[in-house]
Amino acid sequence: MVQIAASRPISSAPEAAPSRADLTRRRILEAASRVFRRQGLDATRMRDIAAEVGMHTGNLYYYFRDKGELLAFCQEATLDRLLALAARAEAADLAADAKLRLLVSGHVVALNEEVPGSLAHLEIEAIDAARRPAIIERRDAYEETWRRVIEDGIAAGVLREVDADTAARALLGAVNWTVKWYRADGDRSALEIGEDFADLLVGGLLVGSARRPRAITPRVPSRRTGAARNSKRQPPAPQRGKRRPR
C-alpha cells in the first residue's frame, strides 16, 4: 500500500524554514504547471507529472492521492497567499486606491512567482464536488475584500462611482488571466507586470481619470487592405482635358 503524506499548503511564514516535504511538493507543483501549460489540464495524467518531476508514479502518490487532490492543493496554497495579501492590504494605513494597487500587484506576483501550479487557480470546475464548496467560500471571501476596498474608495471620493461588484470582478479577471501568458524566463518580472497592471486598472477607477463616451470605432481602410479589396474593382475614370488615342 502506498503511504500518503498529509497535504498541507506551503507555509507562508517567513520565519519558518520549509520542510523537505514542502520542498518536494513545490517541485511537483512546478512540474505540474509546466505539463498543464503543454498538454492542458484535462489531458494531464499523474504519470505525466511524475515523469516531468523525475520520480516514479508511486512516489508521487505519497504526496497526492490523485490529480483532484493535487488541484485542490494548488487552489488552497494559492488562496493562503491571496487571503494573507488581502488581510495585509486592507489593514494597511493607506488610501483605498493605494490598497487596491497592493492587491493588484500582489495578486500577479502570488500567482506567477510565489505559488507554482497556480494555473490551476482558474480551474475551479475541475475540483471535485466534495472539495469545491470550501474552496469557493474562501474565493468569495477574497473577492469580498476587493469589493470592500472599492466601496471604501468610492465613499471617500477617491474612486469613481462604479458598481463595486462589477469592478472587483473585472480587476480579478484581468489579474487572474496573467497565469495564461506570463513566462518566468520573459523580459519582465511578475512584480513589474503587476505594477503596470496597477497603473492601468486602478488608474481607470480614480476620480478625475479621463472618461470617453462609448462609441463604435469606424473602420478605416488601410492602403493595403482598403474597401476596394472587398468589392469589385472599378475601371479608372477617363481624365478630362486629354484626348484618347485613336
Can you characterise this structure?
This protein has 246 residues and is mainly α. It has helices at residues 20-39, 46-53, 57-63, 67-91, 96-114, 132-155, 164-176, 178-181, 190-203. It has a domain at 67-203: Orthogonal Bundle (Tetracycline Repressor, domain 2). Helices cover 54% and strands 0% of the residues.
Q: Helical amount among residues, as a percent range?
A: 40-55%
What's the N-to-C terminus distance?
100 Å
Count the DSSP helices: 9
Category by helix and strand content: mainly alpha
Q: Tell me what portion of residues adopts beta-strand conformation.
A: under 5%
Rg, alpha carbons: 26 Å
Give the CATH topology of the domain at 67-203.
Tetracycline Repressor, domain 2
CATH architecture of the domain at 67-203: Orthogonal Bundle
What's the mean pLDDT score?
Answer: 80
- What's the story with the biggest beta sheet? none
Number of strands: 0
CATH homology superfamily of the domain at 67-203: Tetracycline Repressor, domain 2
Low-confidence segments? 1-15, 210-246
Q: Give the H and E element order.
A: HHHHHHHHH
Compact description:
The chain has helices at residues 20-39, 46-53, 57-63, 67-91, 96-114, 132-155, 164-176, 178-181, 190-203.
